[in-house]
Amino acid sequence: MNIIPIMLLTVIVILTLLLLIICFKRHKGNNKELNELIQEYRKKIEEVHKDYQSQIDAIEKQHQNIEKQTNDKLQAITEKFTEIEKLRANELEKAALRIATLEKEIAQAIEVGADDAIKARLAEAKELSLKVNGLEHELKLAKDSALASEKLQSKVDELSKQVNSLEEQLEETEEEAEEAQKRRKKIQTAYSQLQEELDKTEKEAKHYLQKFNQTQNNLKHLQKELDIREEALDFVTEVLTAERTNDESVSMLYKNVDSTVDFITGELRECLKSTNNLPISIKNKYFGQALTAWAINKKKTWIQGKITIAFVGEFSAGKTSIVNRLLSQDNPDVPQLPVSTKATTAIPTYITGGISTFYQFVSPNNELKRISPKTFKRVSKEILEQVKGVSSLIQYFVMTYENPHLEKMSILDTPGFNSNDSEDAERTIEVINECDALFWIFDVNAGTVNRASLKIIKEHLKKPLYIVINQIDTKSKSDVDDVETLIRKTLMDEGIIFCGIIRFSKNEPLDIMMDPIHKINRDNSREALLDNLLEYMRNKVKDAKNATKAALQDSNEKEENLTELTNQFGEKLTKLIDDCERVKEIPQFNSRWFSADDYRISQEQFNEFGNLLDEIGNECTLKLNDLFDEQKDVVSELETAWQKHQKAKSQQKKLQDCLDKLEKKKRMLSEARN
Known about the structure:
The strands form two sheets. A nine-stranded mixed β-sheet has the order 4-3-5-2-6-1-7-8-9, with helices on both faces. The chain is built from 17 helices and eleven strands. It has helices at about 5-25, 30-85, 90-110, 115-150, 155-240, 250-275, 280-285, 290-300, 320-330, 375-380, 380-385, 420-430, 450-460, 475-495, 510-520, 530-585, 605-674, and strands at about 305-315, 350-355, 360, 370, 395-400, 410-415, 435-445, 465-470, 500-505, 590, 600. The longest helix is centred in the first third of the chain and has 89 residues, at about 155-240. The protein has three domains: about 5-215, no CATH class; about 305-335 and about 405-520, P-loop containing nucleotide triphosphate hydrolases (Rossmann fold); about 530-674, Helix Hairpins.
C-alpha cells in the first residue's frame, strides 16, 4: 500500500531531526560520543520500524478480515437472492447485476477506506512542516557554529543535503496528501452512492424476502387447508361407502324390528280396521310417528335396558373429563375412552359397553353402519367445517368398548352449544332427548348462564335436568356459593325446572355424581308401545270373545223361541187335523135302494159339525197363520243372530290370530336382543 513507505519515511525524518538537535546541543562532545549516539538512535529507529511494520501487518490483516467479512456478507446476500429467484426471476437478475457492481466498488473502497489514516498522515505532514522550519532556524545557527568548528563542517553539509532532501520529500508528501485528499473525497462520494445503492438493494432484498416468506406462509396455509380437505374427502368417502353392521345379533334384531313394523302397519292395522277397533286415538297412539319412533329406539341396542345419561353444556366446561371419571370410577386399571381426547366433541357420541372396541354411526335413515377407528379419530371441527350438511350423512356416533361400568349405563357426550354452529345444536338437541336424564355442565369460572344456553334449556330440553357446576377447585368456597346462587336464581326466574345442583371437580368424590345417577328412573315410554299394543289387542280379543258369546247366546235364545213356535204350530196343526177328522166322521153314509146314496146328520151332529168348522176356519187357521208369521220373524232374527255370531266369531279369530302373531314377534325381539 502507498501509505506504508510514507509513514516510515515520516518517522525516520522526525527521528533524524531530533538526532540533529541533540547533536547540535552536544557539539562540544567528541565525534566518538556522537557516533555512539547515532548508533543508539539507529537501533531505536529500527525498533520503531519493526513496531510500525507489525502494526501495518495487523492493519493489512484487519483489512483482509474486513474484505473477507464483506465477501461473506455478499455471498449470503447472493444465496438469499438465489433462493428468491425461483419466485422473482426478473428482480433477482437485476439484483445480481447490482451485487456484481457492488463487489467491484467495495473492493476498490477497501484499498482507500482508511480515512483516519489519511487524516493522521496530513496532521503529521503539517507538524513535520513546522518542525522543518524550526530545523532551518537551528540549521542557520548550526552553520554559524560550524564556522567555528571545521570538524563539523562536513557533517553540516551532509545534514543540509538531508534537509533539502527532506524538504523535497515534504513537498512531495504534501502533493500526495492533497491528491489523497481529493481521492478521498471522490471515494467518499462514490462510497456514498455505493452505500445508497447497497441500502436500496438490501431494502429490495428484504422486500422480496418478505414476499417470499409471505408466499411460503400462504403455501403452508394452503397446504394445511388441502390436507384438511383431503381428510374431509376421505371421511365422506368412508361414510358414504360404509356398510351396515354385520353383527349377526344386530342384523337379526333389525330384521325382527322391521318385520314387526311391517306386520303392525299391514296385517294388524287392517285387522283392527276391519273389526272397527281403529279409532283416531288408537291410530295416533300406535301407528305413524309413534311406531317409527319405537322402531328407531328398538334398534338402538346400546340403550336398551340401560340408564342413558347425556352430558351437555358449553365448550371447555369439562364434559369429557367428567365422562372419563364415570367410565373409570377412579380405578386406574379400568380403561377410559380409547381415543385421544379432542378439545371438543364434534358429533354427539354414545359410549356403551361391549365385548370389544368398535366404532359405528347412525345414518339419517337410522341404519347402523361401522367405520374404522382412524376415521372416527380424525373427526374434528376443522374436518366437519369442510363437510357441509354433515347431518345428511351422520346423526351421531356409537362407540363400544369393554368397560364393566357400562353394563347398565350408556353415556352420551355432546358438542358444546356455544359453537356458533346451528347444525351442531340441531344434531345435539335431536339426540339428547332420547336419554333418561340430562346433566348440564357449567364452568364455575364462567360465573353465570348465558342467554343462548337459557334459550336451549327452556325450549328444547324435555328430560329431567341436573345442573353441574364444574371445576370448583379453581375458586374459593364463597365464590362458588355466589355462582350457585346466581345460577339458581337465573334458572328459577326463567321458569326452568331442575332436579338439583351438583358441585364437582377432579378432586371431589365420585359419589357426588353417582348418587343422582343411581336415582334416575329409566324412561320406558318409547319401548312400552309394543307392550301397550299387546294389552290393547288382548282387551279387544276379550271383547270379541264376549261379543261372540253374547251373539251365540242370542242365537240360541232365538232358536229356542223358534222351536217353541214350531211346537205350537205343530200342536195347532195336529188339532186342526183332529178337528178335520172329526168333521169328516160326523156325516153318516146312508145307502138307498131306489135313490142316490147320501149322508145324514142329526141336529146335534150338525151343531157340532158347524162348531168344528168355525173353529177350523177361525181359530185354527188364524192361529196357524199367526204362528207361521211369528216363525218367519224368529227365523229372520235367528238368521241375523247367527250371522252376528259368525261375524263375532270371525273377528275373534282374526284378533286372536293377530294377537298370537304379535306375541310371537315380541318373543323374537326379546330373543334377538338377548
